[in-house]
Structure to design on (792 residues):
C-alpha cells in the first residue's frame, strides 16, 4: 500500500508542478491587497474593539445585482491571498490558485471572489497581512494590546467579514468556501447569516472541536507560553518569543503533513550522526529541515496572535449555541464537505459528525473525501482532484 | 463506523475491567524490585559511564538449564513493572499483567520472565524506578551529571540488559517481547545478540525511525527546553522545569490515544465557557483533564531524562549500522510484529517496513494488527486480543 501511495504522490507532484508551471508562467491573475476599517466592534464575548482593520482582496467582477459573490475564508496559518499574484514575478500564487481563476472550478469569469485576513491573523508582521489583534496598538494606551485584546471566536471572524461585505453593499453569498479554520468560518457563516448564504463548502473541516483536537491545539500554545521572552504576553518592548514561535510553527508543519509526503521531502535520517551523539541538544539534518523554515517564518508571526488563534479554534462549536445540533439547525445553505482521507490533524470523522447531524435534520449534505498523501495539506495541494465536484456544486 | 467503534470500546472496557477485577482480586502475583550495578560501561557512542545501576524484577522460576528466559523491554514512559503487584493492596498490577502470569499468554509456570528499567528512564523520581542518567550523581564531581551524561541509544539499553543477564548466567533468551520503545529494544536484541535470541515480538513498534516520527519526537523535547527552569540541563540545585515536563507528558498522553477513546473519557467541550473567553491563558475542563494527571506525574519525571529518551528513540535504526536492511540481515530469531491499526504515534507502516524487509531477506516474519480504539495504547490495553497469537508464537 505504501508503494502505491508513493507512486500516487509522485504522480501528484508531477501533475501539480506541471499545473503550477503551466498556469503561473502563462498569464498570472494580478491582484491587489486592500484594507477595510470599521469601529466599535463588539465581540461574541461582549468586549468592544475600538477599531478593526483587516486586509482583503478579490478576483473577478462584482455584478450589478451584487449576487455573484463567493467568499473564501482562510486557514490557520493563511491569509486573504487565495489566488493570483501581487506581482508578475511573485514566486508563488495564492494558495488555491489551482481552483480560483478564469475558467477554473471557482470561475472568476462568472463570480466575484473575495477573501479577507481574519482578526488575530498568525502572521501580522508579514507585509502582505493586514489584521487587528494583540500586536495592534490599543488606542486607549498607545501601546500594543498584548493580552488585553479580547478573546475572539470563529464567529467574530465571520462578523468582521460581514461588516466588510456590508460596506460593499453585498447582502447575498452565492457560496462561502474555506479550508481547515476557513471551513469553520464557512460553516459558521451559514449559521450566523443563514439567509445570506446559498452554498457552503467545508474543506478539511469540522462541525465542532472535540476534546482530542482541543488538546492537540493546546500543544501548539505551550512552546510560546514556556518561552521566557513571552513574558505573559508583554514583549512588544523587548525580544519576541521567537524560539517558542518557531517550535509552534514546526509542530503545525509536521502535524499538517502525512508521514508519506514528509518522508519523501525530508532528508533521510542518518545512522549514528556524530553531532546527535554528542549532545541531546544538537540538531540533525531531519530536524534542521523542519525547523529552518519555521525559524525563517517566525519573525513574521506573533506569539500572542498564535495563542488567540488556538483559543478561537478550541472554542469552535458551529453556531456557538448549546450544541452542534442546535447550531446546524439554522443552516439553510446547500452544503458540501470535503475532508481528506489521510488527514491526521482534522480527521474525517469531524466532518462526518456534521454531515450525520445535517442528514438527521433532513438536509442533504454532500460528502466526498480528498485522497492524497499530504495529510491535512491535501485540502490545499490535492484540491484539484475535487475541481469538478466543486464546480458542479457551485454552478448548479 | 464511529458508532461501531464506540460499541467496541465499551465492550473492551467491560472485558478489561472484568479481567482486571477477576485477576487482581483473587490472587495477585507478588513481585519485588531488585537492583543491578556494574561499572565502566562504554556506550555505543564511545563514552564511559563509570557506574550503571538499573532496577529489575522477575516472574516465574529460572530453570536449571537457564533456557526458559523471556525478557520484557519497556516503553517510553514505562518501567520494569510489567506484571504482578509489589503489595497485595496495590491499586494496579504491572502494565501487561493481562498476558504475563501463571497460565497466561506468557506463562510464568513455564518461563522465567524478567524485565529491567532502562538507562535514562523517564521517571527517575518514581520510588519504583531504579535508573542511571543525567539526574544521577556523577562520581567525578559528586553532582548530578546533567547534560554531561553521554547520549545513549536503544543499543545501550540492550547492552545494559545483557550485562544483567550475564550476571545471572543467562546466555539464551527463549523470547524478547516489548511494546513501543520496548519493541525497538526487542528488535535490537535480535540483531546485537542474534545467537542468544530465539523469538522476538515487536508490539506497536518500528524497525527504524522515519523523518516524520523523528520530528514528532522532537516536539516532546521542546516544552522542556523552553522552560526557563531547565537552564540548559543544569537545574538540580534549583527548581525543576516542571511546567515544561507537564506539557511534554500531556503531549505524550494525547498522542498515544485515539480520538474515540479520548473523547469518551474527557469532559464534553463546553459551549462558550466564560473563563476561556476571558483569557487565552485560562483553562477549560477538557484541558484540566489532560494536564491535571500530567502535572501530578511531572515531579516523578526528570526533564533531562525525557530529552535523553527522545534522542535515543530519534536515533533508532535497528542494528545502528548503515541502514535497516543491513541491521535486519543479522536477525536469526523468529519474529512477530503486532502494530495497532489505529495507532497515530507509531503507525503500522513502521512495523510493515521491517516486515517487508525481513520477507525480502527470505525470513518469515509474522504480522497481525491489534484492533481497538485506544490508538498507540492498544499495545497495552487491547493486548488480550492477541493473547492466543502470542502464546502460540512463544510456545511452538
Amino acid at each position: 500500500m505504501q508503494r502505491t501511495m508513493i507512486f500516487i504522490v509522485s504522480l501528484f507532484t508531477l501533475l501539480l508542478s506541471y499545473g503550477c508551471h503551466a498556469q503561473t508562467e502563462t498569464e498570472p491573475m494580478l491582484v491587489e491587497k486592500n484594507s477595510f476599517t470599521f469601529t466599535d466592534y463588539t465581540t461574541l464575548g461582549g468586549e468592544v474593539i475600538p477599531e478593526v482593520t483587516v486586509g482583503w482582496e478579490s478576483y473577478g467582477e462584482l455584478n450589478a445585482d451584487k449576487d455573484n459573490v463567493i467568499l473564501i475564508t482562510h486557514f490557520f496559518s493563511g491569509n486573504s491571498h487565495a489566488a493570483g499574484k501581487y506581482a508578475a514575478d511573485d514566486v508563488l500564487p495564492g494558495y488555491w490558485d489551482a481552483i480560483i481563476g478564469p475558467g477554473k472550478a471557482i470561475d472568476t469569469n462568472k463570480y466575484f471572489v473575495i477573501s479577507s485576513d481574519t482578526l488575530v491573523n498568525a502572521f501580522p508582521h508579514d507585509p502582505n497581512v493586514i489584521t487587528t489583534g494583540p500586536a495592534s496598538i490599543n488606542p486607549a494606551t498607545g501601546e500594543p494590546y498584548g493580552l488585553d485584546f479580547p478573546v475572539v471566536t470563529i464567529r467574530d471572524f465571520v462578523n468582521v467579514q460581514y461588516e466588510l461585505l456590508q460596506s460593499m453593499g453585498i447582502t447575498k453569498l452565492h457560496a462561502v468556501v474555506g479550508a481547515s479554520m476557513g471551513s469553520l468560518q464557512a460553516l459558521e457563516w451559514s449559521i450566523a447569516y443563514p439567509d445570506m448564504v446559498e452554498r457552503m463548502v467545508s474543506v478539511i473541516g469540522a462541525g465542532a472541536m472535540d476534546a482530542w483536537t482541543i488538546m492537540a491545539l493546546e500543544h501548539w500554545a505551550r512552546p510560546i507560553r514556556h518561552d521566557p521572552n513571552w513574558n505573559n504576553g508583554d514583549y512588544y518592548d523587548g525580544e519576541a518569543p521567537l524560539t517558542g514561535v518557531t517550535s509552534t510553527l514546526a509542530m503545525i508543519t509536521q502535524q499538517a503533513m502525512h508521514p508519506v509526503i514528509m518522508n519523501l521531502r525530508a532528508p533521510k535520517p542518518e545512522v549514528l550522526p556524530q553531532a546527535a551523539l554528542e549532545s541531546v541538544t544538537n540538531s540533525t539534518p531531519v530536524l534542521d529541515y523542519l525547523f529552518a523554515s519555521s525559524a525563517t517564518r517566525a519573525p513574521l508571526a506573533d506569539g500572542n496572535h498564535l495563542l488567540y488563534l488556538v483559543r478561537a479554534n478550541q472554542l469552535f462549536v458551529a453556531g456557538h449555541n448549546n450544541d452542534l445540533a442546535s447550531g446546524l439547525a439554522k443552516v439553510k445553505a446547500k452544503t458540501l464537505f470535503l475532508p481528506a482521507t489521510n488527514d491526521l490533524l482534522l480527521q474525517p470523522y469531524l466532518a462526518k459528525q456534521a454531515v450525520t447531524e445535517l442528514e438527521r435534520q433532513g438536509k442533504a449534505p454532500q460528502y466526498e473525501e480528498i485522497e492524497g498523501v499530504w495529510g491535512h495539506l491535501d485540502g490545499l495541494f490535492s484540491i484539484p482532484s475535487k475541481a469538478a465536484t466543486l464546480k458542479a456544486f457551485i454552478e448548479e
In short: Residues 2-26 of chain A form the longest helix (25 residues). The radius of gyration of chain A is 21 Å.
